[in-house]
Amino acid sequence: DGQKIFGAGLTGVTYFSNPEDDPYITLPDVAREEEDTNTIKPTDNLICCAKLDGETSSIEVHLWNNEDQDFYVHHDILLDKYPLSLEWLSFDAGDQEEIEGGRVPGNYVALGCMSPQIEIWDLDIINTSEPVAILGERLKKSKKK
Length: 145
Known about the structure:
11 strands; three-stranded antiparallel beta sheet; four-stranded antiparallel beta sheet; mainly beta; 145 residues; 1 helix
């Protein structure tokens, strides 16, 4: 029971507010499948690689699942600097909350570049444009008059 639309050239067109009610839509729910592939499961392993391609640098996050024998690039993070070193962190270093005697788990990577700062990137966030933290930044001092 959709809502009938009348107007210029739209005679007989039915609008359904919920696509699942439309009998003519027979494609599988692509959004649900994408959500499954974007979800990092406890059985998945992450491998981070710093990559340089001409003038472009990035961190590629590969996903390896031993049970399903899957290995693919899960997502990448574009960088504006040339990466020199990566170090994986299994917890949010800035979060002081603790669960079961340990820190809150997470997937983070510390990125070292030619600058004196170390950037912390959250690997659980796809399409991120900036790090969650930058270590070694100097606080801007107010000028005294």
